[in-house]
Design brief:
The chain is an alpha+beta fold and 145 residues long. 43% of the residues lie in helices and 25% in strands. The protein has a single domain, classed as PH-domain like, CATH 2.30.29. A four-stranded antiparallel β-sheet has the order 1-2-3-4. A four-stranded mixed β-sheet has the order 5-7-8-6, covered by helices on one side. Helix 1 runs antiparallel to helix 2. The longest helix has 27 residues.
Length: 145
């Protein structure tokens, strides 16, 4: 089973950052170029590289959903390494309203936005995740946990 996790808030956030950057990068370049052209070029190149990374990371998040198999829940996080949770180790799964109030031991595998599902494992650790359809993810994991 596959569950998306990056279709809501991240899209709006990424598009807003890109739109603001499309205005900010040229203006910053012109202002910095008056002071030091080499610094302006370096800052502009780094800014463009960062925006490119944000876009590619978001595309990877949209195209790499959570994957639930019989024995593993794979939690990709954009371009970063995926977290694999053995389903046999899941003790409980429940909806959570937000990141607020989660214990400091809860590992946040949230791509962007607020956690809405908390997986508790048999060793006492927990994974806070954000799914686009938290009820479907919880329902699919309940038989495993």
């Amino acid at each position: 089973m596959r569950f998306s996790y990056a279709l809501g808030l991240p899209r709006q956030l990424v598009l807003t950052v890109v739109a603001v950057s499309a205005v900010e990068i040229p203006v910053a370049h012109l202002l910095l170029a008056r002071w030091n052209p080499a610094v302006a070029t370096a800052v502009t190149a780094l800014s463009i590289a960062f925006i490119a990374y944000v876009l590619v990371d978001w595309v990877a998040a949209v195209r790499r959903p959570y994957v639930l198999t019989d024995d593993t829940l794979t939690l990709p996080r954009g371009l970063r390494a995926a977290v694999e949770v053995p389903t046999r180790r899941i003790v409980s799964v429940r909806a959570v309203p937000s990141n607020d109030g989660l214990s400091s031991q809860a590992l946040r595998t949230v791509y962007a936005g607020e956690a809405n599902v908390l997986l508790t494992l048999d060793d006492g650790t927990a994974h806070a995740v954000a799914a686009d359809d938290p009820a479907a993810l919880i329902a699919a994991l309940r038989p495993a946990g």
